[in-house]
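Moderator note: this is an archived Q&A kept for reference. The question asked for a predicted structure of one protein chain; the sequence and the answer are reproduced below.
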Amino acid sequence: KKSALIEIESMGKIKLLPIQLTELSDLLLKEDYPITQSITRILYNNFIGLSHPSNLEKFQDNLIKYYSIVNKKLKKDGNAQNTLQSNRNTKASILFILGILNNHIIIEFLKDDLLNSNKFDELLEEGYRWWTLAPIIENHRADLLEFQNKLPLESSRLTLLRIRTEASGWMNEGYHQKSLESRYETRYTEYKK
């Protein structure tokens, strides 16, 4: 499996079939961590390449469960230089995909990270600045402002303010809508919840 995944990943923009994307998402919960990181990169590359899974609900469920594994690994490994950037990239790829799919669980992930992190600047490098998350963050603007005002630490409040401001910037520039229209057309709009 590992050599096949390495081969697929090395091809860069190889387009997998929808059923293959769903099957790969199943492996996220069954394989060891280095293999699942490779799977995540393949899924990310396919979403950029306009592919989508055959069973979206199952795909999202697997991705959300895998996100929890990645997030725990980030917290456990701390600043171990050999894994930190790789773990951040994996988390960012998951958030990117969930953003395209307009999955609002991202807001719960953000809140949890803000409550349980002590390195808030690092959250900015873990995917919360993607343009794909901008409409979700904007849709929860009032809720996030209320949450921001209740956060106990100034650094966490400033981090959330920065994330909200960047999301607003993406939306005001129209970049998000232009990107979705030009890159994804109606392909993912049917998945919007």
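Archived answer notes: Confidence is low (pLDDT under 50) at residues 180-193.
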